[in-house]
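Please review this one:
***
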Amino acid sequence: TMIYATISTGYKQGGIPGRDQNGVVVVEPETNTNYELGIKSALFEGAANLNFTLFRMDYDDLQVNSSQIINGAPAVAFDNAGKARSQGAEMELSWQLTPVDRIDGYITYLDAEITQWDSATDALRGDAFTFDAAGFKLPNSPEYSVRLSYTHIFDLNEWGELSPTIATYRADEAFSSYTNGPQDHNAVSYTHLRAHETRHDL
């Protein structure tokens, strides 16, 4: 069992993506600080790995795709959203049940929102409309998500191995945009089966 803690920083350069109704658009660099506390453990003589992580990331000048009016028409432009934070917890499991059976999965809780942006734009509400987006959810950040998969290896003798995997994923409803409007709702879930074949050299 290993217990760890990390503090790290990140940087994304800014730029000048173009012009809008007010002239040249300047996007400031984005910076962030990430805090993480976790446990990594090996169980059942190494047959299983169980990991648990707590995390928080604080953003300054978060870069986002902003909805604006440009040359009289709605358009998507690059912009800075002030401050934001993303925090939560995740548990991961990888378990080799037998030499030919394996289970993998995770469950994540995520609380991600804008904490400071008093001049957010929304082209759907008019050319000059701005609003305070503090407390609005970050795009594509479902509160809960879970994935589980099972793999079995079939020995095909001289033909190699066949490894079909069935996986299922479910996530809470999230927003595709920081505007968090009715048109921005989306939810993702799927179940799929895939197979991978490994051939031996004959």
